Amino acid sequence: MSGWTEEGLVRAWRALSLREAGEDWRFVHLTGMGAASVEAGCHFPLVREALIVSFPGSCPVDSARLPEGKGFDVSRIEGQAVLAGKTAIALVRRPEGSREIFAIMVVDILKSLEAAADKANRDMMEAFLKRVREWQAFMARTHRPLSPDAQIGLLGELLMLKLLVDTSVGAGALDYWRGPLRSAQDFHVRAGAIEVKSTVRTGSFLARINSIEQLDGDRVPIFLCAFRFEENADGISLVSLTSELREKFVLAGVQRAFEALLMVMGFLDEHATLYGRTLSMKDARALRVEGDMPRLMRAALPAAIRSAAYVLDLDALEIPSIGIPEMINEFGLE
């Protein structure tokens, strides 16, 4: 399943959109994941795209307690011959929901389901519904302007995205940006990962590590990239950097996917006048997450500790750092 993309799903949904003989649903099988079966679907008469994940047998699922998500519905499907003998749960785009964001969400949920299938002791239905609930919370956020800290965080991620786009991979770097999708790290670059932390504060660089997995994942190598910005009238703003990236992605034909990721991050053009603060880079460095790098590690924690967040003083670390170009070269990008 990991080879599927948003574009691949859109093609599947487009093929299903031609209604025949007054049917309510059309389906096409995508893949199996462990005991689960995955179908793309289209619900009529409104031609709403859907993802259907079905599990063997009849499981006691209370439809009234299924997650409710802004932009998409979650419901059980019953009475369909192709799903007979299974517990089928559908995610269905609402008419007002963004097709681009829905496709991105579906791919992310399937990747989470795939990861759960690789763990024999994991309840796949619970893993599936947990990820759906996370997207529900993510998409139900109010459309308030980004906080100053959130603006700096997004500026750092977009700057790293630009640096990756400027390599030989080009606009394909957009697929590396996983921060909007609640991945453990902001970027998954080939087999490795990059977590970006940004600040404009003076004094110690205090980086909030949001989970144990952020600096203790399965990907190799993992780098913690630290950007320190300072006020500068000749610097860049969140608006100008976004505009520059938009131009690049328009030329590459992937602007819609970029816009969807921006929306998920909470960047809306209606707030653009608030994002004109100009900053320049004061310092940029990358720390390899390995060996003596201070961090919480799952293997060293008691099993009773299920999750944790903590603050790391990056200026107090007694480990060597490297430059951003050198870090990018570590991933085989030029």
How many distinct folded domains? 2
The number of helical runs is 7
Which structural category do the helix and sheet elements fall into? alpha+beta
State which percent range the strand residues make up.
25-35%
Whole-number average pLDDT?
89
Q: Rg to the nearest angstrom?
A: 21 Å
The major pleated sheet works out as: 5 strands, antiparallel
InterPro entries: DUF4420
Pfam family, one: DUF4420
Protein name: Putative PD-(D/E)XK family member
Organism: Methylocapsa palsarum
What is this entry, summarized?
The chain is of the alpha+beta class and 334 residues long. It has helices at residues 6-16, 99-117, 124-139, 148-165, 238-252, 255-264, 324-330; strands at residues 25-33, 36-43, 48-56, 72-77, 86-93, 187-189, 192-199, 206-209, 222-236, 279-288, 310-313.
